[in-house]
Amino acid sequence: MPASSPESLTPSPGPLHVALIMDGNGRWAERRGLPRAMGHREGVQALKRTVQAAPELGIRCLTVFGFSTENWQRPAEEVSDLMGLVRSYVASDLKRLEREGVRVRVLGRRTGLPSDIAAIIERAEATTAHNDKFLLQVAFNYGGRADIIDAAQRYVDLVLAGEAAGPLNEQTLASGLSTAGGPPVDVIVRTSGEQRLSNFLLWEAAYAELVYQNVLWPDYGPAALADVVQQYQNRDRRFGGRPAPGVSPAPALAAG
Ligand code: IPE
Ligand code: IPE
Ligand code: MG
Questions:
Q1: For a Cys staple, 217 with which of 22, 29, 107, 145, CB 3.0–4.6 Å?
Q2: pLDDT tens digits for range 149-184
Q3: What does the domain layout of the chain look like in residue ranges?
Q4: What is residue 78's three-state secondary structure?
């Protein structure tokens, strides 16, 4: 493309916030005749590569789905392997994340988690709370429906305590979600070829772009993430409106 072409003068902005459904660990392992735990372990390496690559692609926030409220239905041994990975990920990577300016935030319910995992999560959040270069949100024991229910319950509790009144609106409900205060989700990516949300970021998905990639999560890395950025740049976000050609409107804040 010549340097003076309109496209090169006004490049489409890339996504600031990418949410990833990291799927396909089990199939990656099964295809190699390995136990599923090996797929999950390789998945952690893919997560490290992806987090490291994101800032160079202009991304400021990654939200990754690590464990869903439905994943408790898996065999106890697999659940225990997945809990173990939180221990090893934080033990091996927290120092680097802290040094590199990454703030870690964990989305989802703390109740029901083994107490040492809850403590590790709190330590990771506290140690990196001052960082503001990059936000890594890890959805763990997270379900989109549970998160909406919890937000609604928070509002009910405020009303019962006499600290809130009036009908619930979108802004108030969103302020009770575990993603409150974070940037809006620009794109939700699912790996492994499956095309569903599986209870991830249901509220936040309202106007997110959706990208499905055929790569199994343990094979994920900078090239696949760069492909997401490129696909996103070719999308036309309308938020229900009719933008003038070449203009992308900001999402409207719902009226209270
Ligand atoms: C994603 O990989 C990791 C979690 C859900 C925790 P899977 O374990 O779902 O892998 P597949 O989908 O069975 O291949
Ligand atoms: C979604 O993947 C949850 C995570 C990636 C943590 P699943 O593998 O659990 O979803 P389904 O069962 O295929 O819908
Ligand atoms: Mg899966």
A1: 22
A2: 999 999 999 999 999 998 999 999 999 999 999 999
A3: 14-142+185-233
A4: helix
* Residue ranges of the chain with per-residue pLDDT less than 50: 1-6, 254-256
- pTM exceeds 0.90, yes or no: yes
Ordered strands of the 187-190 beta sheet: 102-107, 134-142, 61-68, 17-21, 187-190, 209-212
How many angstroms is it from 7 CA to the middle of ligand 1?
39
- What is the whole-number distance in angstroms between the Cα of residue 36 and the centre of ligand 3? 11
Beta strands 187-190; 17-21: pairing state: parallel
Distance in angstroms (rounded) separating the CA atoms of residues 122 and 128 = 10
Q: Does any ligand 2 atom lie closer than 6 A to the CB of residue 139?
A: no
The answer regarding whether domain 14-142+185-233 maps to CATH 2.40.160.20 reads: no
Ligand 2 pocket residue status of 67, Cβ below 6 Å: yes
